[in-house]
């Protein structure tokens, strides 16, 4: 029997509601909306800002040990450029630019949806700082939506590292995000990460919370 879209949506909503009702331990997860930003290696940082340069912390991020730096750069692609792109610290072994799909259209660069660090075959970008510029080859991605959590959180949610789950939002533009990767580490703090495109589509902000479901929809 053919099911129309409205009936399918109702069936999915009922399944999720039943799942959450029998899993009362499922708690809310804070949302972290990620604007475009760049992680820099020590080598690239020194080219852009000068020899032996150290990043200056602007504010702490939710993930322990990570911070938004005062430093910003300009990024340029074949079609356009974007200024005031925030540098995140501390420095990493490898530079990586994370943008939204909307940004990629503005810049004219390739930006596959990837997990952090999965850079092979990704996009190229020119980065301009106050002291110099670097051309980053295969360093541009759109970050795949994901949840950071501790091992204790993972136990409470009955999920494991690398598992894909569904995330359910609330509000006027209720949305189900599928294919959300779970990242588990004692170094993490519980947080659901999406980029600005995804957040805007679901009317989400960093003040909101979401729920997860392990149902296969």
From TrEMBL:
It catalyses: propanoyl-CoA + phosphate = propanoyl phosphate + CoA. It comes from the Bacteria. It is an enzyme of class 2 (transferase). This is Phosphate propanoyltransferase. Pathway: Polyol metabolism; 1,2-propanediol degradation. Belongs to the PduL family. Its EC number is 2.3.1.222. Pfam families: PTAC. Its cofactor is Zn(2+). Involved in 1,2-propanediol (1,2-PD) degradation by catalyzing the conversion of propanoyl-CoA to propanoyl-phosphate. It comes from Tissierella simiarum. Keywords: Acyltransferase, Metal-binding, Transferase, Zinc.
